[in-house]
Every structure is written in C-alpha cells, then in structure tokens.
Amino acid sequence: MFQSLLHHINRTARWAVMAMVWLWGSTAAVAQINTENMLYMGRSAIAAEDYLTAIRYFNRIIEVKPHLYQPYYYRAYAKFALEDYRGAEADCNQAMSINPFATDVRPLRGICRIRLGNYAGAADDYTMCLANAPDDANFRYNRALCRLEDKDTERAASDMDTLLRRHPDFYRAYAVRAQTELMRGDTLAGLAWIDRLLARKPDNADAWAFKGRHALAVKQYADADSMLTRAITLAPDRYEDHLARALARHGLNRFDDAIADYDRTIDLVPEHFAAHYNRGLLLALIGEDNKAIADFSYVIGVEPDNTLAIYNRALLRQQTGDYRGAAADYTTLLKTYPNFLYGYAARAECRRKMGDIKGALNDESRVARANLDMMFGKRSRYPVKKVRLESDHNLEHYNQLVNTEADDSAGTAVSRILSDELFGRVQNKRTDRQMLPPMALSLRQATADRSYRPPLFLSEVGHLAEETKQPHLALRSVLPADEETTGQPTDDGNASHQRWAAHSLIQAIKATDGYDYAGALEWLKTALQANDATHADTLMCTLQTATIAWRGATSATTADSHAPEQPTTSVTCTQALALMQRLKVPESMKAVMAYNMGCLYAAQQDMVHAESAFTKAIEADQDLGEAYYNRGLIRLSNGQSQEALTDLSMAGQLGLYKAYSIMKQAKKP
User: Fold this and answer.
1) Three-state DSSP class for 206?
2) Which helix or strand (DSSP H or E) is residue 608 part of?
3) Please, which contacts does 392-400 make with residues 24 or more away whose CB atoms are closer than 8 Å?
4) Sign (positive or negative) of CA dihedral 121, 123, 126, 128
5) Cβ atoms of residues 354 and 331 within 8 Å
6) Which superfamily does 2-98 belong to?
7) Could you tell me which of 237, 249, 301, 304 has the C-alpha nearest to residue 278?
8) pLDDT tens digit string along 20-39?
9) Which of 133-142, 417-426, 464-473, 644-653 is the least confident region?
10) What is the dihedral sign for C-alpha 468, 470, 475, 476?
11) What is the pLDDT of residue 616?
12) 0.85 cut: is pTM over it?
C-alpha cells in the first residue's frame, strides 16, 4: 500500500511538473509573441517618423528582455533621427556587446561617431564593415571621408583608388580624390581628377561647381562664371552656386546679373545673411538706395550689432534724406566706436538738417577738439573686388562683399566637397515634397506645432464619437506624435454599453494610433463581421484599412540603405482600392473617399489615376486643402508649374501653410 501511494504521489508530481513546464512554455510563447509585436510596432513608429513613440516601445522590451540586441539597435536608430548621437552610440555599443556579430549595427555607430567628430572611431567601424563586405562602395567611401577629416590624405587616397578600381562609375570618389590632392597642395592634380569625372559624367553639377569655385578663388572670374552657369543649369536650386556666381559676376562688373543671383539665393534661402548684405552693397552701387536700405535693415534685424550694416544704412539714409534715421544709426555706431570722428561729423550734418543746432555744435566741437582735418571725409562708393570674411567688422571694410567661406589655404575652402549629404543620413530621407497621408480615424489630439488645418468632423464621425464616448475621435490626414495620447490599444471595458461593431472599430483606431497594424486589421475584420455593423461602420473601416495599406506601401519605399528593415502590412493598396471601389458612398463621404484613393494610387506610383482621384475629391469638396496640396505636388513633378502653383496657393489659403514653402522653392530663377 505504501508503494502504491508513493507511485501515486510520484505520478501526480510528474503531472504537476509537466503542467508547470507546459504553463511556463505557454507563458514564454505569449511573451515572445508580445515582444515581436512590440518590435513590429516600434519599427512601424520609426517608419512614420514618430521616434518618441518608437523609443517607448523599445524601452518596454529592454525592461523585460535586456538580452536582446534588436531593441537597442532600433532605439539607437530612433535616437539618431532625433539627433541624440551620443545616446545612439551608447545603444549601438550595448547592442554589439550583446551580439558582436550583428553586422547591421556598425554602420549606424559609424555615422553616429561621424556626427560626434570621432572620425578615427568611425573609420574603425567602417574597417570592420569592410572585413565582412569588402566590395561595399559606401563603406569604403565613408571611411575615406573620415580619414580625410583626420588629414590622413595618403590612406584616404588609397581607399578611393581601390574603390575606383572596383567601381569605376562611383562618381563621388573622383571628387574625394580631387580633395585629397588639394589638401596636399597640388591644385593641378586635383583639377585633373575633376576632369576625369567630367569625362565620364559631363552632366555632373558638383564637378562643374567644384571647378567654378576654384576659378573664383584664383580670380579667374570669366571661367568661374561659365563653369558655375553650367552647374546651375544642371542643378538650378542649389543656392551655394548662385551665391558663388554672384561673386564672379561682381568681379566682372556685371552688377545687374550679380544682383539677379542674389535674388535667386534669397528666393531659395530667405534668411541668407551674406546674400542680403552683398545685394545691399550692389544695389547701393547702382543707385537703388531704398532697396539697399531694406537689405541692410534685414541684416540688422538678424544681427543688431552688425556695425558694417549699420554704417552702410546710415550712409544711405543720409543720402536719401532720412536724417533722423541716419542720426540714430550714427549714434549706435558711436556707442561702439567712440573715437570714430567721421561718425560725429556725419551726425552733425544730419542734426543741422533736422534743425538740431545744439546737437550739431556738440558733434562739431568734438571733432575740432581732436584737431583733425577730417582725414576720412565723406566716402564715395566704388566697385571693389575685395571680399571680406563674415566675421570681419572693420569699418574700413564697410563696402566689401561678404564671403561665407573660411579663409583657408590652397583653395581648399572654396573647393570643399564634404557635407552631411555625402556621409549619408540614417533616417528615412523624406523630401519637403512628401505627400500628405490619407484620411483616417484617430483618437490623438493634434499638437500645437502642426500647421495643418483642424481635423474633419463629418456626421458619420460625430455619430460614432458620441456613441462611443470618445471626445477626440476625428478624421485626420496627419497622425501627429503626441506624448500623452500615444500608446498600445487597450480595452476600455465599455463593450457592454456600446454596439459591438462600434467598439471593435474604436479598438482598431487605437491599434492604428499605436502602430499595431496587424491588431488593427483583426479588429476591423471583427467590426465588419458584427451583426450590428452599419453602412457607416463599413465606410469607416474601409478608410482605416486604406490608411494601413498606405503605411505599408510608403514604409517600403522610404527606407534607405542604412535604415532598419521597415515593417509591412498584410493588406496592399490594390486590395484596399478594390474594397473602396465596391462601396456605395454617400455624398458626404465622396470627397474623403476619393482623396484616400488618390493617396493609394500615388503610393503605387500611379500618378495619372492619383491626380484624377484628387480632382474628384476637389469637385466633391472645394475646401479639401489636402487634395489641392497632393495634386499640386503631382503637377509640379510633371512640369505643370502654373497649375501646380495654383493648387498649392489654394492649399495654403485653406490652412496648409507648408504649401507656401513649396511654392517658393518651385519658382524659376
């Protein structure tokens, strides 16, 4: 009996142990699924450029499973996009300490180190990358740039020679070789490398700009003008080339043409200091005094202590009869330069013109007591070929043009080719001409820094918001990142008080806001299958599905070569379009439905159907600014400039103020 009881106990214990093992395994499986889902949602947040939300997701994974390297890597990526390079490097270090063989981490850490100025460390990272991928041109190119920054011209040149032997059409390498020769002081060899590049690729704007800047540095103004003109023809929207050509044309005494280049520079970069200052000088030379005063006033508004701009404006105000303004400018100058005797003499003249005899006598007495014979006299303007540095505020240089380049030797500064763009950015490269996304239901509140118009509140949306007690439910074309409203979908516990279809739709919206697209699609499926689902529910579910499809399509097309692999969704644009085309759409929803179809067509690069859909959206709702904006971008890319500007103007009028920036960029020189 004792043996029988012992057998029973042992058998029971075995079952208990087996049950515990099964339970533990089941719990681990669920945790694994949640971890993968959290990673997916974090990567989706990165794809949507919602980096703060992404970091929160990865933080949660790290708290539970600190032995995984992926969340550290993805969090590093998000931190880099937020320009937290030190934090990103630390996360990369942690990821590599967990998995030294993770080859995708080193390129990211290399770029972080570049941003932190640790070029030697970055070069070491790229050396390790090349050990695994010796034929990767980008790794070798970036290592050469790091070595160039550390003045290691020999090894930088060796890297580029190796790269060109393996990839003779990697055109940027020729420019780097030219740079190495210039840094060695061999200008002829540097130009020979640029000529090799032009022999292979004669339409390379960078090469022509390179040669033009060098010609400008050695005062070969005619050659500089010709080469920079070629560069501008190939790439008309680079303000640096217009600025350099303006200096060349000033050297040729072609003042009107130089002013036109400064005009174009200011069109492209309205806040450009040197362009305003130099244009002011040239306008004064040709007698456009009031316009020159406006330019100097702009410079003074940006830099209130810019004495040379104040001096030039004082001279011009005095010349145009604004004696009160001129006297005020001279007073400002004299506070900084109390021994500037010409300033007292000029202010005395202005005060006499104003009727301030006492003030004029005080200024004249100051000059007389110094026993000077007005050696400076009233200065006349004349075209000078000298160019001063932006930091030079010597009053003797008041009529010299500003050069924004540093005063470097051997033409290095004017021929410099290193820039952030050549290093390559890790985050998604989204241009200013990115289309607005489709309309979707969201529970997020728009943040104050968004310049888009308020969200749409259609009757269908209002009814659903009232029924589900969700005060912030709205239809939006932008899903803004918001610290307070972003998070995982949660069950609000009110299912018993709501229609099941509406409840499921709300859960789908929460999942979409949290980038859980797989979960959102499951809730949308539940909503559509619910017995109490209305036609309005079906419409809203379809709109939400369209947004998820759009997110998947755009995530796949905007990731660059350095970015972490972006998630995709299980629903395609084609499937979403098919759903939308089968629906009977009420008048109130036609504009939004057509707009969303346009977004999906655009995501598929079908711009003909996209433009047509946006046109239908505008016909249904003439106040739908998003449709004007997206159609304007399509027309701009098709060369329909006038039609595009009309659309963008209308979008700006309707509250999409970013349209005005696009319009400014699109204007022809």
Assistant:
1) helix
2) helix 607-620
3) 393/306, 393/307, 393/308, 395/307, 395/308, 395/311, 395/337, 395/340, 397/308, 398/308, 398/311, 398/312, 399/281, 399/312
4) negative
5) no
6) Tetratricopeptide repeat domain (1.25.40.10)
7) 249
8) 333 333 334 444 447 888 88
9) 417-426
10) negative
11) 92
12) no
d(CA 264, CA 315): 26
Q: Is the pLDDT of residue 523 over 50?
A: yes
Question: CA dist 216 to 212, 219, 276, Å?
Answer: 6, 5, 20
- Pick from 334, 423, 349, 400: nearest CA to 143: 423
Name the β-bridge partners of 474. 442
Instruction: Identify the CATH homologous superfamily for domain 440-666.
Output: Tetratricopeptide repeat domain (1.25.40.10)
How far is it, in rounded angstroms, from Cα 217 to Cα 251? 11
Give the SS3 label for residue 200. Answer: helix
Q: Where are the alpha helices (DSSP H) in 486-559?
A: 500-513, 517-529, 535-558
pLDDT in tens, 204-229: 888 899 899 889 988 999 999 999 99
**Per-residue b/e over 70-101, b at no fewer than 16 CB within 10 Å?**
bbbbbbbbbbbbeebbebbbbbbebbbebbee
Report the amino acid identity of residue 484: E
Q: How many helices (H) and strands (E) does the chain have?
A: 31, 4
Report the 10 Å Cβ neighbour count for 412: 17
- The reply to whether 440-666 shares the fold of 2-98 is yes
Q: What is the DSSP secondary-structure string of 158-188?
A: HHHHHHHHH-TT-THHHHHHHHHHHHTT-HH
Handedness of CA 522, 524, 529, 531 (dihedral sign): positive
Closest CA to 413 of 425, 421, 405: 405
